[in-house]
Each structure stands twice: as structure tokens, then as C-alpha cells.
């Protein structure tokens, strides 16, 4: 048996049998190179980059480029996320270079370095909803309104959130990787200052600074808050939930099925809806919070 | 070295390096401000006010 269609079908299975069945079903969605994410990651970055000469040479107006840039920056995280989980190619595989290329390149618009993201994200997976060890817990334990307020406050110079990733890297003995964050932010600021003082401050604001602020809130909302709120339960089947987004799966960046990602992080994002449908009776039997899906 | 890095990433440097020219260029693009000089002076005032608030209060928006 490698599929189930109802909770009743798996009701008589022992825990061991259920585990075997669950892994067998999930396995069918793994070890598939997500070429869409590869094209998305590199293409999205090239598109965002191309907006700069197009705007600075007055080929397209900045008001038109602004929503495109915002969309680009909002979409820049997930391809790197696939790479963080070695979904494109694991260590020692022929396409490993591509995995790392996508990981490094796609988050440049967000000014977030791949090595730091990967290390802190693995901690989020290992310690989901742990108040002391989950670096992304800050936004989960809040009401929706409070999330938006906190997201804004987290970006203030004195916010404790500013140190969370640094502290996580220190705890992991990976402080040396914070040099990536230092270099990323230094280059970002130097570019912003240079553009601003050469007469292109509005372009810099509308192609990078403001899109980055919008994107951070959007990504935090759909990747951290929505799948993990209220952020109190721990355990494999309880620390993440499925949810029905008013914006649909596409505009919530596929995060409706984030529970599948936490259970089987090697399943590509594009296959999580199908994996969710295949696993649903088992997840119901496990007592997972599947929202209205 | 640490002091230089801290200074470079400080809110005040961001205000001078980015917010000042940004404010000035926005003011230049609206018909309310007559001269470029006025736009740059007003831009400096706006950026400095936000920069000082962020530097010493720790928040760009007062609340924290």
C-alpha cells in the first residue's frame, strides 16, 4: 500500500505502519530537481537587475519599475529556500554548484546572505516554536495586527530582533559567517549612498529600499507568522499548520502547505500541494492542524 | 576598526548618506519648493531630524 484516501483507511494501522506509509508517500515527491525554482531564482534576479539600467537610462519610468521591483524582491527568498534545503542538489551531486548558485544569487535583492540564512533556517526547523532557540519565533506568537506592528518595530535600530541571527550564529559557532552579512550590508549601503548622491535617490528608493521593506513584511507574514501562529505548540505534527489563504496558494507563496515542508523539507515547494493531498488522511490521523484545507 | 564599522552602519550615516539626498530630490520634484537650494536645506533638516531620533532614541518612528 502506498496511498490512502481516507482517515478510516489508516485507522487500523499501527504507529510504525503509519510512519512507514507516510515516509513512502512523501518519498514519491522527493529527489526531483525543481527546475522551476532554478529558473525563478536566477531569472527573477536578472529581471530585477535589468530594471536598474532600464530606469537609469529612462527607457522605462520609475513608477512602472517600482511594482515590478517590489514583486522581484518579494519573490527572491523562496528559490534560496529550496537551495538551503539542498533540494536542487545535495552535497556531492553533479548539480551542487547550481544549488549553491541559486542559493547565493536569489536573495541578493533582500540583502540577506545565503550561508547565514541556511544556518539560521536549519535552527528554525530543528527548534520550531522554541522561545529560546527558534530564531524566527519573534513574529509567530502575535495576533495578526500585532504582527504588522512588530514587523515594523523589528527594523528599528534598537530592536532586539536585530541581534537574533547574530546570536544564533554565535551559539552555533558560526560567527565567522556573519562577515557575509557585514559585506552584504556594507555593499548595499555604499550603493544606496552612491546612487543617492549622484542624483538617483528616488530610483534607489523605489527599486530597492522600499521594495525590500515591503518584501520583508510579506515574507515574514507568509513564511513565519501564518504557518506557525500561535507559535506555542512543539512537536513534529503540531508546530506548523496548514491554512487557507484569502489570497490563494500562489499569492501566499505556496505557504498554505507549509506543514508538508516542515515534515519533509526535501519536497520541492511546487510539489507540496500534491504531497499534502496524498498525505492528508495521515496528517488528520496524526491530529495536525490543517485549517480549512 | 569596530568603531568605524559601527559608525558606518549608524542611523545618522544612513540619514546623511541616503535620506538627505532622497528628501531633497523628492522636494525638487514637487512644485511646492521654489529653488534647489531650499530643497537641499529642507532635505537636510528632515534627514537630520529622523537620523538624530533614530540614533539617540533607537527608532525611526519614535515608538519602539
Task: Describe the SSE topology.
The complex is a heterodimer of chains A (293) and B (64).
Chain A: H1 15-27, H2 35-56, H3 62-74, H4 77-84, H5 96-106, H6 114-126, H7 137-140, H8 144-153, H9 164-171, H10 178-228, H11 248-251, H12 258-263, H13 272-285
Chain B: H1 2-8, H2 11-29, H3 36-57
Helix pairs in contact in B: 2-3
Which features characterize this protein?
heterodimer; A: 293 residues; mainly alpha; 60% helix; 0% strand; globular; B: mainly alpha; 75% helix
Q: Largest sheet of chain A at a glance? A: none
Q: Can you tell me the overall shape of chain A?
A: globular
Domain count of chain A: the total is 1
Q: What helical percentage do the residues of chain B reach?
A: over 70%
The counted number of beta strands of chain A is 0
The structural class of chain A is mainly alpha
Query: How big a fraction of the residues of chain A is strand?
Result: under 5%
User: What is the largest interface, and how many residues per chain?
Assistant: A-B, 21 and 24 residues
Order of helices and strands of chain B: HHH
Helix content of chain A: 55-70%
Q: Helical region count of chain B?
A: 3
- Gyration radius of chain B, in Å: 13 Å
